[in-house]
Amino acid sequence: MPDVDGVQMDDGTAAALQQLSRLGSELTARQPVIENRLNYLRGHHPLVYASDEFQSYMGDRFHGFADNWCAPVINSPAERMNILGIRPAGETAADKEMQRIWRDNACDRTSSEALTVMLAAARSYALVWNNPRDEQTPRITFERADQCVVRHDPETGEATAGLKLWRDEKYEYATLYTPEALWKWRRAAARVVPEGDRPDPAVQAGGGWEPRQSAKDDTWPVPNPLGALPLVEFRNQTLLDDAPISDIDGVIAMQNAINLVWAYLMNALDYATLPQRVVTGADMPKVPVLNSDGQKVDEKPLDLDQLVKDRILWIPSESASTSEWSAARLDVFSSVIERAIEHVAAQTRTPPHYLIGRIANLSAEALASAETGLVSKTGERIVYANPDVREIHALSYLVLDNDAKARAMRGGTVLWADPQYRALGQKVDAMMKLKQIGFPFAWIAEQYGLEPEEVARVMEMREHESRMDPLAAMVDEMGRSGGAPAEPPTEPAAEPAGEPAAEPGP
């Protein structure tokens, strides 16, 4: 048995510890990138200056300023990605049991947050496991992108291992997920070691990890009854590799430029929006240097930067004169900002009126046309998320020990709300035309955007109304079909008994 940090471990435990170390290193390297992307989504932007001089003058004045355009770029598609349910393979209706499980876990909200993080940070995660409080309701949690990592087989692309890593004030915790088992570890939280001191033994080579076992765990490691990785990774667009792309990777540089131009604009607003005067014919101002007795012993140049900041003008020469120049124009800055925002809109397929906010008598058709790129982009992101949503549903049925349902979920159809927004009149008109050409009412109700449970409720209410007032239902059907309802066929009159039927004529 190998010796790891002085503790005898079997081969399986040593291999798990090595895998934890590799995944932990990958996650640690990824965390600064994820944090930077999410900070830009939140609006926490470091102001990037064009020159060191401007930074030295204005660094403190604009600390924390951000004109956040990353948020609408992410939120515009994210707010249109709403999961309504899933229809298992081979079935025609949404799975009611999964709708209950989804609601019980508050996945309406948390899945929306996970999809937002997927678009911004390029990754997000979901964890499916049994719920000790309710054996009939698997637990579904969506996890932070900077705390989880999943390893994929380079040949098959199959997820082979996952790691969740987090910490509190005292310990750092890790859970390694494999299709066979869950390995739970902890170690003392790493402390900051001054340079030159010996490293903390808890973070030396070998990791300092020790097994972690809760009161409810009978064994260590915990066997995985699912036979599949319970940690699911949502990955945004990739280029056939394991490096998903954030939707704001290309926006960050332009965001920095916009913030910088705003800083210049506000600097001009403070210093150059009033007529300015310049002093000529004057010596450089100097201040006396006094000794301990208060006697002048020398002179030193006055800090002109301090004069500018304090708005003080000192003219010691009688021959000094002043001249004036006009106030600066600020519209040159605002036009640059607007052009940069237009570039953001074009590069990210975000409708310009979402960012600029100017709408001048545009028709409904023109607005729908302006949002075509966003609708297409949202549909593309839905395609990226579909396999992972199906896997969450499949794992939920594996927790319930229903392999047949799990297979049906992996081949099922995820039901999403329509990502295209239409005026109510346009939508109703389209639905009526679909009904007239023969589409079933239940399908039309789904396309209208109702959740599966609402579709079933509407159908029940419709059936109840038909039973209560059959005449009104017949008239309603006649109005939708554009003519009188077809009458049922009548049976031919019976021949009189004992008389042969007439022979047909020649």
From TrEMBL:
InterPro entries: Portal_protein_SPP1_Gp6-like. Residues 492-506 have a biased composition (Low complexity). Residues 196-221, 477-506 are annotated as: Disordered. This is Phage portal protein.
